[in-house]
Amino acid sequence: MPAPRSTKPAGSKQPCPGRVPAVENAQAKKEESSQAKRSPSSPQGAPKKRSAFGDITNAHKTQHILGKKETAKAASKKAPKGLIVVGVAKNNEINLKKSASKISSEDTPAEKVPAEKADPSQPPANQVALVQVRPIEDIDKGQQDDPYASAEYAKDIFNYMREREEKFVIPDYMKNQPDITRDMRAILVDWMVEVQENFDLTHETLYLAVKLMDHYLVKVTSLRDKLQLIGSTAILIASKFEERCPPCVDDFLYICDDAYKREELISMEMSILQTLHFDINIPVAYRFLRRFAKCAHATMETLTLARFICELTLQEYDFVQESASRLAASCLLLALKMKNLDGWNPTLEYYSGYCIQELQSLVKKLNFLLTYQHDERLKAVRCKYSHRVFFAVAKMVPLDMLELEESLQKASRRSLS
């Protein structure tokens, strides 16, 4: 790896002529003034709750409406004088009774249970459903006027990303890389974190670049002297995909200390894109983490702590096989426990698709990473999140393993009760 430079490369963030930057919302401006660039969809105010699901049928409403119609119809008819009035009124009464009995016979299956078979000690089926359904908030309801939130499509977008996760599962590829080790990969990712900071790139760019590098190494055997070239080219591709004004090729040649030529960088870019069939819209944990933080109404400090935990996993090869959504959910759950906040609520379980029992093993693995796995060569992430701009979350004391185990068990019992 090249020796770090003290100065930031000149011209790394040249403004694009003729391109007008989009107007960010008020929350995004506040975040960008205190931290590195982030998407403006960080958790905002508490959304309104969705009404609880009750009786999903409309049989009782139909009966009430039809009853009113029949009564009004009967009252509007002019009855003849004399004894015929009594007969017409009697016929109307009989018709009303037949109509009511017909409507009640077409009610829901739950209401067809005979009286002699129904258990008087049990409440009706519709009341049981009301007790079992827990309130779930619509986290996109309050952002209809925010064009950057894409509130109308947000749920479908993240469901689509969950489906794409199955396509981008990373196997254990190190056994097929005779000249590359886990430590080399960790050092490379540590360097990529520094590049993201120096170029002021978004976190999505960093996460996507690491994914591109891993997926390329799954299919191509590489030598160690080309590893940095792969990493820098992956950042270049991710920058073109995520950034409004990505750095130019000369900037990446500069940060590599001119170890590679322009032709080599362009050739590697073509190789990566062709190997991945230009399918580089890979789901990353950072996007899911921001989405799940909305469900928890997490503060910026709690979200930053979860981001710190998630970014530490980029360097660890043991976490490359984890799905992005499960990793993001586990990082947020651990951050909530470290801040002594309530854990997995019904809204989080609904939008993440994970119950607390499915996250316990990964949460304990993440806490072990925070507590024991400190490599002195890997300093970029911890130094980055030790700054006051990031609330110095890297300096927080990790939870005791036994204390975390007890807390997770209690939360699991509460969720099952």
UniProtKB/TrEMBL annotation:
Keyword terms of this UniProt record: Cell cycle, Cell division, Cyclin
Chain ranges of the Cyclin-like domain: 190-274, 287-371
Single biological process term from Gene Ontology: cell division
Matches recorded under SMART domains: CYCLIN (SM00385), Cyclin_C (SM01332)
Pfam families the UniProt entry points to: Cyclin_C, Cyclin_N
Source organism superkingdom: Eukaryota
Keyword match Glycoprotein: no
Domain Cyclin C-terminal: 283-399
Gene Ontology MF annotations: cyclin-dependent protein serine/threonine kinase regulator activity
Comp. bias intervals (Basic and acidic residues): 109-119
Region: Disordered, residue numbers: 1-79, 99-124
Cited PANTHER family: CYCLINS
Family stated for the protein in its record: Belongs to the cyclin family. Cyclin AB subfamily.
Name of the molecule in the record: G2/mitotic-specific cyclin-B3 isoform X1
Source organism (scientific name): Eublepharis macularius
Lineage: Eukaryota, Metazoa, Chordata, Craniata, Vertebrata
